[in-house]
Amino acid sequence: MGDAHQLAENTDKSTQNAQGRLTCKRILNSAGKLFATQGFDGVGIRDISEDSGVGLSTIIYHFKSKENIYLETIRHFVVEDAGLDSHFKPLFTVDTSNPQAVSDALRNCIRSFLDACHGKHHVKHLAGLYCRILSDSHPQALILLMECFANIKLALPEWVARIRPEMTREQIAFWVQLFWAQLQYTVAGKQLILHDMELGEGYSEEYLDISAWFFAYHCALPLGLPEPTRFDSMDSPSNP
User: Fold this and answer.
1) Cβ–Cβ contacts within 10 Å for residue 186, how many?
2) Tally of CB atoms within 10 A around 75
3) Among 67, 37, 47, which Cα is nearest to 127's?
């Protein structure tokens, strides 16, 4: 009888845990959508409750505060789901004695990052949250974002130095800034780019191919690398 009672209790707890995870997922999905479009200051717990259909008291029970929801939303969509550092790992395994392979690795890692933010395989809410992290300047959110790139931040200057050992630390630092600036502007400046280049509602796959190629090309030039191989989509006469 005791074993049966314990089994029933364990089953109840397992069911409650599963329901709790589903509830948290609903909350985070709504929070991700709202924070991505309105930022930290523009969203309240009541807004998340109304959008998710989860009661206010239940949200507070699971997350305690709006700040905790915000940070957990970033952790979930930006840190865990996106795996942002993984898009740049091919740079550090490429044979640096093969200049063409290095240029193409630049092109491929940039294209992979753009796809995660804007392409057909994009991570849900990633682009909006990434942009809001930069604009909201919430200290802990910025730390979470920087942690995504911590290993890349350390490895990238060393990688550049292997390719161009004669470059000074200052020159390498500016190259790294150029590399990140191109990627981050594509995310943070999306609406301006869409308007300026008359791209409609979003980046097309063809535009992302061209962007990745041009970004890689302008990163390759200072390193004395050849032009990256063009994507098939760039063979059209209408493309630069």
Assistant:
1) 22
2) 15
3) 37
Cβ neighbors of 99 (< 8 A, separation 6 or more) are 224, 225, 226
Secondary structure letter of residue 228 according to DSSP: P
Q: Cβ neighbours of residue 59 under 8 Å, at least 6 residues apart?
A: 27, 45, 48, 49, 52, 69
In tens digits, the chain (240 residues) has pLDDT values of: 555 444 334 444 444 577 878 899 999 999 999 999 999 999 999 999 999 999 999 999 999 999 999 999 999 988 887 788 888 988 999 999 999 999 999 999 999 999 988 888 888 888 888 888 888 888 999 998 888 888 888 999 999 999 999 999 999 999 999 999 998 888 888 888 989 989 888 899 999 999 999 999 999 999 999 999 999 877 654 454
CA-to-CA dists, residue 214 to 44, 111, 173, 201, 228, angstroms? 41, 11, 20, 22, 9
Residue 219, classed as helix, strand or coil, is: helix
Among all chains, which residue has been given the structure tokens 């004669």? Answer: 166
Give CA–CA dist 1/179, Å, rounded.
Answer: 67
Residue with tokens 């390193």: 223
Return d(Cα 62, Cα 187) in angstroms, integer.
31
Give the whole-angstrom CA distance, residue 18 versus residue 21.
5
* H runs (alpha helix) in the chain: 2-38, 45-52, 56-63, 66-74, 99-118, 126-136, 139-148, 150-163, 169-188, 190-196, 205-220
Which residue do the tokens 């994507």 mark?
Answer: 231
